[in-house]
Amino acid sequence: MREGAGLAKAKNILFIMFDQLRWDYLSCYGHPHLHTPNIDRLAADGVRCDRAYIQSPICGSSRMSIYTGR
């Protein structure tokens, strides 16, 4: 199909999921002693979630919910 024929331009999305990493252990969220320059650079150039909710307080089931959408 030719460009501009009503198709949206594809977006580049990088979804990073950490296991056992609290949000307040990143310097982009204000930790005074831990320095995470690479994650900080990604946060500065992209989207940073300031309010997020999980499906379960147990790590495994919360990850599976994100993986499967259930």
TrEMBL record:
<protein>
    <submittedName>
        <fullName>Arylsulfatase</fullName>
        <ecNumber>3.1.6.1</ecNumber>
    </submittedName>
</protein>
<dbReference type="GO" id="GO:0005737">
    <property type="term" value="C:cytoplasm"/>
</dbReference>
<dbReference type="GO" id="GO:0046872">
    <property type="term" value="F:metal ion binding"/>
</dbReference>
<dbReference type="InterPro" id="IPR017850">
    <property type="entry name" value="Alkaline_phosphatase_core_sf"/>
</dbReference>
<keyword id="KW-0479">Metal-binding</keyword>
<dbReference type="GO" id="GO:0004065">
    <property type="term" value="F:arylsulfatase activity"/>
</dbReference>
<dbReference type="Pfam" id="PF00884">
    <property type="entry name" value="Sulfatase"/>
</dbReference>
<dbReference type="InterPro" id="IPR000917">
    <property type="entry name" value="Sulfatase_N"/>
</dbReference>
<keyword id="KW-0378">Hydrolase</keyword>
<feature type="domain" description="Sulfatase N-terminal">
    <location>
        <begin position="11"/>
        <end position="70"/>
    </location>
</feature>
